[in-house]
């Protein structure tokens, strides 16, 4: 049993690591964010479909009522990925990923609006801690600052991701997670297809290996492994462990992009990640 637990824990940490490569790849690939996300999604569709057929996963949508939530969820997922990559390119991997990781606290604020749950005043305290963390990340507030623009895009990405989670939350128990991810990438590919006609895609050949890595390693393998790992851990445990994603991302950025985090990034990021861990522990106790 201990061996099985160790294997499952290793898979969850590995999934977290693979997903964290999105930061370095998103900043490194020299193409417009919308174009990167289209190729990421289109390639991921192929990998995920092949995996679903191999594992004989049912791809049928059970009700006509589910089509609209799936489509809306996919649109918000597209917005989440595009704005996240804007955040990475405008600032750096550390600021982009840490800004995105405000989503668990956003989720706590939005949940009472979407679902029939009572608002908890403790979330106000956590929200204030996140705001302090964001202020420390970039204390000089100026919309002309690329760091501030990166933070704002990161926050917008977190908001889109939170809404997408809340929209699809009620369907997670009814459908296989990899199947849901497949449909999300199909919808994203359809939504962003027009960008291929009016945005620069000339760098595709030189960037192909990195786009392929983003689609296969980060999206298809990383997310599928994460979904598989969730069978063996509670959502709160998984979210606590996955909160090391920005740390993995910052380490990878240091080695591959020579990005050294400032003291402000370390202190502000630590505060943001602390609120994530606190909220995850609290949700587990509830």
UniProtKB/TrEMBL annotation:
Extract the Pfam families matched here: EamA
Report keywords, A-Z: Membrane, Transmembrane, Transmembrane helix
Q: Which domain of life is it from?
A: Bacteria
> Which stretches make up the EamA domain?
10-137, 150-278
What residues form the membrane-spanning segments?
Answer: 12-30, 36-54, 66-87, 93-110, 122-138, 150-168, 180-201, 207-226, 238-257, 263-281
The record's annotation in InterPro entries points to: EamA_dom (IPR000620), EmrE-like (IPR037185)
Q: What is this protein called?
A: EamA domain-containing membrane protein RarD
Organism, scientific name: Tenacibaculum polynesiense
Taxon lineage: Bacteria, Pseudomonadati, Bacteroidota, Flavobacteriia, Flavobacteriales
